[in-house]
């Protein structure tokens, strides 16, 4: 893929969650994502193109995903 094709593409997304176990089960079943845990408060995924993770937060606010 050329550099121009990669411009403005999402490469990483981080989701806040009050319980990362639930999202892990959902995204694994829905999209086949695999996860690597980094302690009890963060897990990452990589689906072959997109990378990201879920981090534990006390309260989830609207517009909470961080995209890079």
Description:
- The protein is an alpha+beta fold.
- The protein contains 2 helices and 5 strands.
- It has helices at residues 3-6, 21-31, and strands at 12-17, 34-37, 42-46, 51-56, 66-67.
- It has a 5-stranded mixed sheet with strand order 2-3-4-1-5, covered by helices on one side.
- β3 (42-46) and β4 (51-56) form a beta hairpin.
- The radius of gyration is 13 Å and the shape is globular.
- The chain starts with a helix and ends with a strand.
- The model has no long low-confidence stretch (mean pLDDT 80).
Overall helicity: 10-25%
Regarding quaternary structure, what we see is single chain
Which sheet architecture does the biggest sheet show?
A: 5 strands, mixed
Q: Roughly how many Å is the radius of gyration?
A: 13 Å
How does the SSE layout of this entry go?
Elements: H1 3-6, E1 12-17, H2 21-31, E2 34-37, E3 42-46, E4 51-56, E5 66-67
Parallel strand pairs: 1-4
Antiparallel strand pairs: 1-5, 2-3, 3-4
Main features:
34% strand; alpha+beta; single chain; 68 residues
Offer a quick outline of the entry.
The protein has 68 residues and is α+β, with helices and mostly antiparallel strands. It is built from two helices and five strands, in the order αβαββββ.
């Amino acid at each position: 893929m050329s550099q121009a094709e990669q411009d403005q593409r999402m490469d990483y997304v981080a989701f806040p969650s009050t319980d990362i176990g639930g999202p892990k089960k959902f995204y694994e079943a829905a999209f086949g994502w695999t996860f690597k845990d980094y302690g009890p408060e963060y897990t990452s995924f990589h689906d072959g193109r997109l990378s990201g993770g879920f981090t534990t937060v006390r309260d989830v606010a609207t517009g909470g995903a961080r995209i890079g």
